[in-house]
Design brief:
With 147 residues, the chain is an alpha+beta fold.
């Protein structure tokens, strides 16, 4: 009984914070999903700043994947302003979406800003968080429904 309780308590935080993670599954193969993702980011008014390969580090640990990237994006003026006003936000900027292949589909993941809102009482920052979150939702949804 104690083992079950301990396991439940260990899993509880991840269950509670699952709403902070956005995930969509696309029927597009990885290369096409990556292309749609970057184009959708641009159409949403953001600039892709870089695409980082994650698979190299994973293969070091024995994982077999060659299609795992993190796409970093933002609006330069917003990122600079947010970083200047709130230096503790810098690790969360620019915005990012992880994208990886799973069988014949592609999965995209992004973090929400819900967990940060309690630490920033400034309504302008909360508004920016909501806007970023809305934009990320729209980007993910466009990739999800793309054919």
């Amino acid at each position: 009984m104690r083992t079950c309780f301990a396991a439940f308590m260990f899993l509880l935080p991840s269950l509670l914070f699952a709403q902070d993670l956005f995930m969509v599954r696309s029927s597009l193969p990885f290369p096409e999903a990556m292309s749609v993702l970057q184009e959708t980011i641009r159409k949403q008014g953001y600039q892709v700043s870089r695409v980082q390969r994650v698979d190299i580090g994973l293969t070091t640990f024995g994982y077999k994947t060659d299609k795992y990237r993190v796409v970093f994006f933002g609006r330069l003026d917003e990122v600079r302003e947010a970083g200047r006003q709130y230096p503790d936000l810098v690790p969360y900027l620019p915005l990012k979406i992880a994208i990886f292949a799973e069988d014949q589909e592609t999965i995209l993941l992004a973090s929400s800003f819900a967990h940060l809102q309690p630490f920033y009482p400034d309504p302008a920052v909360k508004s920016r968080f909501r806007q970023w979150q809305t934009d990320i939702h729209q980007i993910l949804e466009q990739v999800r429904v793309a054919k």
